[in-house]
Every structure is written in structure tokens, then in C-alpha cells.
Amino acid sequence: MNKKAISGVVVAILLLLIAVIAVSIFWFALRTTIEESAEGVGKGKECITLSLKIESANSVTNKVKVKREVGVAPLDKVKILVNGAEALLVDAITGEDEIKELETNEYTIPITPTDLLAANDKVEVAGILEGEITCPVSDTATAA
Fold first, then answer.
1. What are phi and psi of 143, to 5 degrees?
2. What confidence category does residue 20 fall into, taking pLDDT thresholds of 50, 70 and 90?
3. Does residue 105 carry a pLDDT above 70?
4. Collapsed DSSP state (helix, strand, coil) of residue 66
5. Which CATH architecture describes the domain 50-142?
6. pLDDT at 133 over 70
7. Torsion (CA) 34, 45, 138, 70 in degrees, nearest 10
8. Are 78 and 127 in contact (CB under 8 A)?
9. Whether 50 contacts 129, CB under 8 Å
10. Which of 128, 85, 132 is nearest to 109 (CA)?
């Protein structure tokens, strides 16, 4: 009888080679998804450091007073929403609408029939960072 068998060392090497190939195929299949997810996190992480607070919302004067608290996020614009709809979008880095850390600014909502601020309206404020990254709503208040 002349039987030939594969040695244990050769079997171990073949199994190791198959495992490496399987892991490589799995990695290349998932790499794109992982990179896209990580990119999205990188863009939005600066929103965590941005804090805008509504100090007052006056339905008589149509003014909303917003305070920017401590945070180094590169704020580009301030977005004010009334009852969920965008009522005002202002450039927050230059001119009279500029709002720096620990400063307060008062914004007047344009007076149109649809944008009038009424008592008990829900007023929200959100920041838009450089690169047009819109942060979630930072604060909510009820107009007085």
C-alpha cells in the first residue's frame, strides 16, 4: 500500500492562507462604508462644541436675543426657526450680526405675514458652521 498524505505543516499553512484571503476580501468590502461613516462623524463633531442659547423671544418687537456660550466651533451663520420653519438666517462672522464666544446679539425676524412672531410660538436656534455644516437645534424657547 502506497498512501500519501499532506503533512500537518502544509495543512496549517493552507488554512492560514485561506484565512488571510478571507479577511482581506471582507476588509475591502467594508472599507468604503467605514470611511464614509467616519467622514460624517468628523464633519459633525464640531457641532458638539457650539452652544447657542435663546435669552428672549419677544413677539411684540419680533426680536430674538441669542447668546453664544463657550465653544470654539467655526460658526458661520445663525439660523432661527419659528414653529419649525426657517424664519431668519444671518451671517454670524461679520458686521452687526457677528456673534463671538460669550457674546449676545439680538436678531429681528423680518416682518411678513408668515414670519410674524406670536406669543407662545416655538422659537429655535441652530448654528451653521464653515463648510455649510448645519448643526442640530441648540436651544428652544417660547415667545412671550
1. -65, 140
2. very high
3. yes
4. strand
5. Sandwich (2.60)
6. yes
7. 170
8. yes
9. yes
10. 85
Q: Please check whether residue 106 is in contact with residue 64, taking contact to mean a CB–CB distance below 8 angstroms.
A: yes
As to burial, measured by CB atoms within 10 angstroms (0-12 exposed, 13-18 middle, 19+ buried), residue 53 is: middle
* Model pLDDT, residue 43: 61
Cα 108 to Cα 1, 55, 139: the distances in Å are 98, 14, 17
What is the structure's pLDDT at 77?
86
pLDDT at 114 over 60: no
Pairwise CA distance, residues 14 & 26, whole Å: 18
Give the 3-state secondary structure of residue 71. coil
Give, as one character, the DSSP assignment of residue 118. -
Judge whether residue 103 has pLDDT over 80: yes
